[in-house]
Amino acid sequence: MPLGHIMRLDLERIALEYVVPCLHDIGFCYLDNFLGEVVGDCVLERVKRMHRDGELADGQLAGPSRGVAKRHLRGDQIKWIGGTEEGCEAINFLLTLIDRLVMYCGSRLGKYYVKERSKAMVACYPGNGTGYVRHVDNPNGDGRCITCIYYLNKNWDSKLHGGILRIFPEGKSYVADVEPIFDRLLFFWSDRRNPHEVQPSYATR
């Protein structure tokens, strides 16, 4: 059986049997060992090169402070990419797999049917206690419905390095802490159901 066919069946099964139920039941889910170490390393090396070459700029705030960088509120450095840029083949492969996963969710996402995505945001928290205060990715209904995050942090120890993504599910009595470990892919609703924060990072994240 061709590898592409096997991959399609696996992604479809993951989408229908895991991603869709989790999003409906608890509002988020994550997949570990998504790309595997070899391909994940290729993505990591490309992102490291962007960071090393100074291609990342301070993240900006939306809302009333739109376009303003305030490091005490949001400490990441970012770059928006489409995946077709020179040298971004591994990133493009990752984005293609994520696109397929979301596509296989199809009409099973309640009122949502995802037809397209934005560019991918490459983000780096440089350590020194930088994080991102509690916020909602899409508080005003701008069309975004699912946030997908792929983590690249090898040998990450959250007790030592911090940097946990904490989700505050709407109407729930608990919080969900997601460690930003290498080759983990996270999905959650982008709207007001999932306020979240990036806790202070004490190593490059």
UniProtKB/TrEMBL annotation:
GO terms for molecular function: ferrous iron binding; hypoxia-inducible factor-proline dioxygenase activity; L-ascorbic acid binding. It is found in: Nucleus. Residues 116-205 form the Fe2OG dioxygenase domain. Gene3D superfamilies: q2cbj1_9rhob like domain. Its main location: nucleus. Its EC number is 1.14.11.29. It is an enzyme of class 1 (oxidoreductase). InterPro entries: HIF_prolyl_hydroxylases, Oxoglu/Fe-dep_dioxygenase_dom, Pro_4_hyd_alph, Pro_4_hyd_alph_FE2OG_OXY. It comes from the Eukaryota. Keywords: Dioxygenase, Iron, Metal-binding, Nucleus, Oxidoreductase, Vitamin C. GO terms for cellular component: cytoplasm; nucleus. The keyword Oxidoreductase applies. Its cofactor is L-ascorbate. GO terms for biological process: cellular response to hypoxia. It catalyses: L-prolyl-[hypoxia-inducible factor alpha subunit] + 2-oxoglutarate + O2 = trans-4-hydroxy-L-prolyl-[hypoxia-inducible factor alpha subunit] + succinate + CO2. PANTHER family: EGL NINE HOMOLOG-RELATED, PROLYL HYDROXYLASE EGLN3. This is hypoxia-inducible factor-proline dioxygenase. It comes from Chroicocephalus maculipennis.
